[in-house]
Amino acid sequence: MISNRTQTTRTLVLDRGKNTLSPRLLELRIKIHDKEYVNNAIQRIAQVISRKLVEEPEELQFRD
Fold it and tell me: Closest Cα to residue 26, out of 9, 41, 39, 5?
């Protein structure tokens, strides 16, 4: 099922003609449909935020 989405995404992007996207952006568009990749990305973001909260809690406070 994921491979069908991948092929569709590639086809849609490559058919744009002059406005072809970079290989990196194409790669990320493919990865966003990979559930494991997204879960790992969320985990990494949570780790960074948690570390920041422990090291510099005042930096993440809401300001008026």
Answer: 9
7-34 CB burial, b ≥16 within 10 A, e <16: eeeeeeeeeeeeeeeeeeebeebbeebe
Query: pLDDT of 10-60, one tens digit each?
Result: 555 445 555 788 999 999 999 999 999 999 999 999 999 999 989 987 877
- Residue 60 · residue 29 · CB < 8 Å: no
Q: Tell me if 34 sits within 8 A of 3, measured CB to CB.
A: no
